[in-house]
Amino acid sequence: MQEQERAQARHEKILDAALSVFGRKGYSATGVDDIAAESATSKGGVYFHFPGKQAIFLAVLDRAARMLRAKADEAIASETDPIAKADAALLAVLSTFARHRTLASLFLVESLGAGREFHQRIVQLHDEFTNLIKLHLDEAVASGAIDPVDTEVAARAWFGALNEVITSWLLSGRPKRLEDAYAPLRPLLMRSVGARERQSTVRPG
Amino acid sequence: MQEQERAQARHEKILDAALSVFGRKGYSATGVDDIAAESATSKGGVYFHFPGKQAIFLAVLDRAARMLRAKADEAIASETDPIAKADAALLAVLSTFARHRTLASLFLVESLGAGREFHQRIVQLHDEFTNLIKLHLDEAVASGAIDPVDTEVAARAWFGALNEVITSWLLSGRPKRLEDAYAPLRPLLMRSVGARERQSTVRPG
Amino acid sequence: MQEQERAQARHEKILDAALSVFGRKGYSATGVDDIAAESATSKGGVYFHFPGKQAIFLAVLDRAARMLRAKADEAIASETDPIAKADAALLAVLSTFARHRTLASLFLVESLGAGREFHQRIVQLHDEFTNLIKLHLDEAVASGAIDPVDTEVAARAWFGALNEVITSWLLSGRPKRLEDAYAPLRPLLMRSVGARERQSTVRPG
Amino acid sequence: MQEQERAQARHEKILDAALSVFGRKGYSATGVDDIAAESATSKGGVYFHFPGKQAIFLAVLDRAARMLRAKADEAIASETDPIAKADAALLAVLSTFARHRTLASLFLVESLGAGREFHQRIVQLHDEFTNLIKLHLDEAVASGAIDPVDTEVAARAWFGALNEVITSWLLSGRPKRLEDAYAPLRPLLMRSVGARERQSTVRPG
DNA sequence: GATGAATGAGACTTCATTCAT
DNA sequence: CATGAATGAAGTCTCATTCAT
User: Fold this and answer.
1) Cα C205 from chain centroid?
2) Which residue gives the smallest C-alpha to C1' distance to F21?
3) In this predicted model, which residue has the larger pLDDT, D110 or B203?
4) A50-65 per-residue burial string, b: 16 or more CB within 10 A, e: under 16
5) Cα torsion at A164, A167, A171, A174 (round to 10°)?
6) Which of A72, B153, B163, C146 lies at 20 to 30 Å from D166 by C-alpha?
């Protein structure tokens, strides 16, 4: 089984390298050669593990999405109030992206330009996250914590607002610390769904 | 002046073609040949008028941005209330994109994937539009129509929410009619800045 | 000896697989992977038994040639008249190829395109078969059954005529049944060497 | 129009180079790079004129076929007797191949190994030439010059015999001079269709 | 000004072969 | 003996850009 382990390790190594290079140079400017070099493999080795460049990108995207999702779930689990859960999810995303700029670039920038082939997957990722938020907003509505708003749209709007803030940070470098962007954004989001203004118990993390 | 006019006409024709092809195939999948063919010119002709593919894309983007800005300004001019002005600007963007899907694709999708070279310009465009909204939000705050929120962030959040809705429409086709997305979004945005709920006087157009 | 037997069995299995794949996909389109898969072995296994792809093809060719030769010898043995022997040899080849289309493809098509490395072997195979025919034509000349023709050329011409018929069948599918091609061909060949026209006693087999 | 001429010249130059390299190295061993180098062009230049390697090979084959056909037609035109016409056609092919070994290699060897994609064209070429011979054999039958044989098969057999002789010369180098192979072959072919033995008036040419 | 042939760097991918396990 | 991961050279093809006409 040691062989399988080594292969798996190589698989991951390639994914790591790909994440790094895609994040650094962008999808189209990244060559399979670059990935091979960064992962200390040969080009053929890369193609042994993945059928092509697109597949690598997709795999990177998926792995990152799983990671991000785990962070969000974890953050959600540590809260009880529905609104706080949604809030925590947003903050988890923002914090994770703040720590892994590459990931943010991949999700919010590169994946779009990578070509039409990825659009479906992007939609899927956005939907998944939007639904996560919607779920808790629905609960909040049910519990009377917020007004009976269109949670679908609200979730999308929240996600969009977050994305814009992160994208702006990515492309322009403002604000210096991405985490600083959430404090002023939060009350806006809360008010948008009629949530009673409270002090957030969630800390950036 | 006839010479110059002909040159100008050709210039525009190439830009039209480029907008069409970029919107249809995406930035990287578009070849200069495609643009030449669509504009009934030769490749050399395209290179006479533009220094390269990037420059064409930038020119298309700029022209489109001017057009979009004009639409927004026009919409703003027809309103008097600051909030209504900001509201109208958003709706103008959405309506324009709804009518020119290609434009939306260019602004929100292709420009990102086109490469790092365009990031600066994207930031510029986002900033320009965000500032437009911020301006009127500031007025609204000054006039006491809305709470003294961080208008910078609010404007960005509004823009982000709008973008997400449009992007989603672009990539997934939902909702069928993009205009239908604004009705449920509007109250959220209004509430986010503490605007007194009113019936919008602005009609999609 | 069991070890050796198993090895031998594997050897044959690979050869069978190779024959099948080469015949199906052609030499260059066949990958060593294909052969490994078809023979239920691993690539390494194949390379244990054979030094390389060329060697496999050569081995397949040789084994097939031996088989074909055996069929021809058998057919020859069942005849007494020299002309009938040559005649029988041709028919045996044709019949065998009719039943094993793959073999025909290998011999008459793939072996040529496989590369210069195989040319010598092809010549050898053609010579071997031509000589077989020549031998009996020589006897026929000696016995006065046919005119004192240049048997070397006659043998080659016979072989060539047969090849063309078979190749045509391979590439175009005409005639439907390859065996049907021999009946009209036979009298031509016979007349070409001045053989007294007789009813063939040989039956396609 | 000078530009068109230059382009046409380049087109031909590439075809010349391709013929040379394909003939020298074989289809699969030939790289587009080789053709580019031999034609003193760039790789891109080759791809400007031809869509791909296969297309180049096909074009070479077609051009060569036209040339060969012209030679045959010319030879046929200079004879009056039907049998002599068919005879002349064969000899023309043989002579042309003798002078252009590369052509022979292309037609009889490389075209087969080039892959399934070419099979149809090969059949077409074989059929074209076979029909040419059949035409004149039919006339010979009609005029009573030869027996009422199956001219279709006879033509194919003649062609096959010729091919084998040429192929053998190509692969083994025997006989030294290909033209020497026709003298002993001719009477065989004639006898095969029951043609009254005569002295050929056709000279190798 | 316009044309389109030509360039050439570089992209992705394949695959025969090797070799550590 | 067998496995299959890994190698790397080589292949086909694309395309932004240049430039002679």
Assistant:
1) 15
2) D3
3) D110
4) beebeebbbbbbeebb
5) 70
6) C146
Q: What is the rounded distance in angstroms from the CA atom of residue A142 to the CA atom of residue A137?
A: 8
For residues C34 and C40, what is the distance between their CA atoms, to the nearest angstrom?
10
Count of beta carbons in the 10 Å neighbourhood of residue A1: 5
Round to whole Å and give the CA distance between A30 and A51.
Answer: 16
Cβ-nearest to D157 among C27, C149, C185 = C185
Q: Which of C123, C160, C172 sits opposite D123 (nearest CB)?
A: C172
Answer yes or no: do D165 and C181 touch at CB < 8 A.
no
Residue D154 near residue C162 (C-beta atoms within 8 A): no
C29 touches strand F (CB under 7 A): no
Q: How far is B2 from chain A (nearest CA, A)?
A: 40
Q: Cα-flanking dihedrals φ and ψ of residue C49, to 5°?
A: -85, -25
Residue tagged 């050399």 (tokens): B44
- Nucleotides of chain E touched by protein CB (<7 A): 1-21
Residue C102 contacts residue C19 (beta carbons within 8 Å): yes
Q: Which residue has the tokens 């009209």?
A: C184
Peptide bond before residue C175 is cis, with ω within 30 degrees of 0 = yes
* Distance separating alpha carbons of residues D186 and D195, to the nearest angstrom: 11
Eight-class DSSP state of B196 = P
Total count of residues recorded for chain A: 205
How confident is the model over B4-53, as pLDDT tens digits?
778 888 999 999 999 999 999 999 999 999 999 999 999 999 999 999 99
Count interface pairs C-D at CB distance under 8 A. 134
Least CA distance to A171: which residue of chain B? B119
**Concatenated DSSP letters of chain A:** -HHHHHHHHHHHHHHHHHHHHHHHH-TTT--HHHHHHHTT--HHHHHHH-SSHHHHHHHHHHHHHHHHHHHHHHHHHT--SHHHHHHHHHHHHHHHHHH-HHHHHIIIIIHHHT-GGGHHHHHHHHHHHHHHHHHHHHHHHHTTSS----HHHHHHHHHHHHHHHHHHHHHH--SSSGGGGHHHHHHHHHHHTTPPP--------
Nearest alpha-carbon partner for C22 in C2, C11, C38, C3: C38
User: Are C79 and C202 a contacting pair, CB within 8 Å?
Assistant: yes
* C6 CB-to-strand F distance under 7 Å: yes
pTM attached to this predicted model: 0.90
Which residues in chain C come in under a pLDDT of 70?
1-3, 197-205
Alpha-carbon gap: C100 to the closest alpha carbon of chain D (Å):
18
On the question of pLDDT at D133 being above 90, the answer is yes
Confidence band for D203, pLDDT divided at 50, 70 and 90: low
The residue of chain B nearest to residue A192, with distances taken between CA atoms, is B192
C-alpha to C-alpha distance for C111 and A15, rounded to whole angstroms: 43
> Which one of D128, D153, D165 makes the best mutation probe of the C interface by having the most chain C beta carbons within 10 Å?
D153
User: Could you tell me if D190 and D83 are in contact, meaning their C-beta atoms sit under 8 angstroms apart?
Assistant: yes
> Does the CA dihedral C90-C93-C99-C101 come out positive or negative?
negative
pLDDT at A200: 53
- Which residue type is seen at C103? L
Q: Are C153 and D181 within 8 A, CB to CB?
A: yes
Tokens matching residue A112: 């779009």
